[in-house]
Design goal:
With about 475 residues, the protein is an alpha/beta fold. It folds into two domains: about 200 residues, Aspartate Aminotransferase, domain 1; about 250 residues, 3-Layer(aba) Sandwich (Aspartate Aminotransferase, domain 2), CATH 3.40.640. Helices cover about 40% and strands about 10% of the residues. The strands form three sheets. It has a seven-stranded mixed β-sheet, with helices on both faces. Strands 8-10-9 form a three-stranded antiparallel β-sheet. Helix 9 crosses helix 10. The chain is globular, with a radius of gyration of 22 Å. The relative contact order is 0.16. The N terminus is likely disordered. The structure holds pyridoxal-5'-phosphate. The site of pyridoxal-5'-phosphate has 15 residues, from helix 5 and helix 6.
Length: about 475
């Protein structure tokens, strides 16, 4: 018998839409400023969308980090905050939710993801060791380097090609890991840093098969694997959708199996977990946990709050549970896909396949006449804001920073502008407005000129760099 889900009804009766599994209880008015005011705001911000005031932004697709809309249950949870300095009951709720859904033994709370990355890097990397990752992430790699590690990218080559439609473009190339083991020896590898989904590759997933095979390889050599679990729930959705044998498993079951192939995880709870702030480090090894929970009191806060208020831990515990609901994730990824498919239909170059949390415009293909040293993706983010007040962000040469040894720009193959979709915040009509704005910018691409950098901060320059028009 056919189940009457929106999808199967669609097959039976022609077009039937799916809809978000929630209704709106409270609204926050949006504001659009004039084009002249946007021109001024952009100049004041040095053509860096991170330096714009939120009040000057219409639709904010800068990031999906901490921008989630919380549910009525999460807001109710905020009122149950136990703000005791030590042993807050909300910490135990959070610990139980992490253990139930992610399956690790020990929890160290942190103020957000980079706090967890800092603790893990300090506790698990010895100066001179290598850390392998499936494409770098900005804060993750920086903490690994600050701890004396050398980052090595081991993602499959397809990930660096925006046109490749590989279904699991986030996968680790096991040959690259093996080569590093052969070259330096397993004891020189601190751990494998496995990110799911891979943000910098376009929100691309890692398959269960790849995680399992990586575990087997690492077991042979005694190498640990730590997950960047920031969007692991979204990753589980792609496994359910694309990998044989997982169609009838729940997201929760898939996530548990996936995490079981790793020794611990860092988490930015501002993403998957539908909260506005928070993070954690989870570990299975008691000695490492002991060290990390000692370090947390130096850098974050006591080991039962780690920089979060009790109410935030409660909202996060509830958010973890909500994020594992299959209907939530179908709507979340469905909305991203809706926007991506509109753009694809209009011939606008984006990273394929469409990822989990964002649409990545291919700025090289957009602006073939702007060289990478004139910051095409930064330019595109500026142009989109000028056209419509929509805020996006650069993921290209600016984000990639400079080579620690030579001082030259890192020149990534991918030069992307990210339209990141906050969870449960915008409607389909907003997505239509965004698609039309991108189209308008695309239509006048030939007359667009690049930028030059006039101020460059030392760390994570994309956040605070300033530019001028060429
Ligand atoms: C956001 C993010 C982080 C860092 O987390 P913060 O909460 O911003 O400190 C780490 N890894 C990935 C993949 C992220 O997207």
């Amino acid at each position: 018998m056919l189940q009457t889900t929106p999808q199967t009804m669609g097959q039976q009766f022609g077009r039937r839409s799916w809809a978000e599994p929630w209704k709106i209880k409270m609204v926050e008015p949006l504001r659009v400023i004039t084009r002249a005011d946007r021109e001024r705001a952009l100049q004041d911000a040095g053509y860096n969308t991170f330096l714009l005031k939120s009040d000057d932004v219409y639709i904010d697709l800068l990031t999906d980090s901490g921008t989630n809309a919380m549910s009525d249950r999460q807001w109710a949870g905020m009122m149950l905050g136990d703000e005791a300095y030590a042993g807050s009951r909300n910490f135990y709720h959070l610990e139980a939710a992490m253990q139930k859904y992610y399956g690790y033994k020990y929890l160290v709370p942190t103020h957000q993801g980079r706090g967890a990355e800092h603790l893990l890097s300090q506790a698990a990397i010895k100066p001179g060791q290598f850390v392998c990752g499936n494409m770098y992430f900005t804060t993750t790699r920086l903490h690994q380097e600050l701890a004396g590690g050398t980052f090595t990218d081991v993602i499959i080559d397809e990930a660096h090609d925006p046109a490749s439609t590989h279904p699991f473009k986030g996968n680790v190339d096991l040959n690259k890991v093996q080569k590093l083991i052969d070259a330096v020896g397993a004891s020189k590898i601190a751990y494998i840093s496995l990110a799911v989904t891979v943000n910098m590759a376009g929100g691309q997933p890692v398959s269960m098969e790849n995680a399992r095979a990586l575990r087997a390889l690492c077991n042979q050599h005694g190498i640990k694997i730590f997950l960047d679990a920031t969007r692991a729930m979204e990753n589980a959705y792609f496994i359910q959708e694309r990998e044989a044998g997982y169609q009838d498993k729940s997201l929760a079951e898939i996530l548990r199996e996936f995490c079981s192939y790793s020794d611990g995880a860092t988490m930015s709870a501002k993403k998957d977990s539908l909260a506005n702030i928070g993070g954690w480090l989870a570990l299975n090894d008691y000695d490492l946990f002991e060290e990390a929970s000692n370090l947390v009191v130096v850098y974050e806060g006591l080991h039962t709050y780690g920089g979060m208020a009790g109410r935030d831990m409660e909202a996060l515990a509830i958010g973890i549970e909500e994020s594992a609901q299959d209907d939530h994730m179908r709507a979340r990824i469905g909305q991203v896909r809706y926007l991506g498919e509109l753009l694809t239909d209009w011939g606008i170059p984006i990273v394929q396949p469409i990822g989990g949390h964002a649409i990545f415009l291919d700025a090289r293909a957009f602006y073939p006449h702007i060289s990478q040293d004139e910051f095409p993706a930064q330019t595109l983010a500026a142009e989109l804001y000028l056209d419509s007040g929509i805020r996006s962000m650069e993921r290209g040469i600016v984000s990639a920073g400079r080579n620690a040894k030579t001082g030259d720009h890192n020149r990534p193959k991918l030069e992307l502008t990210r339209l990141t979709i906050p969870r449960r915040v915008y409607t389909q009509a907003h997505m239509d407005v965004v698609a039309e704005a991108v189209k308008a910018v695309y239509d006048h691409r030939e007359t667009t000129r690049g930028l030059k950098m006039v101020f460059e901060p030392k760390y994570l320059r994309f956040f605070q760099a300033r530019f001028e028009r060429l």
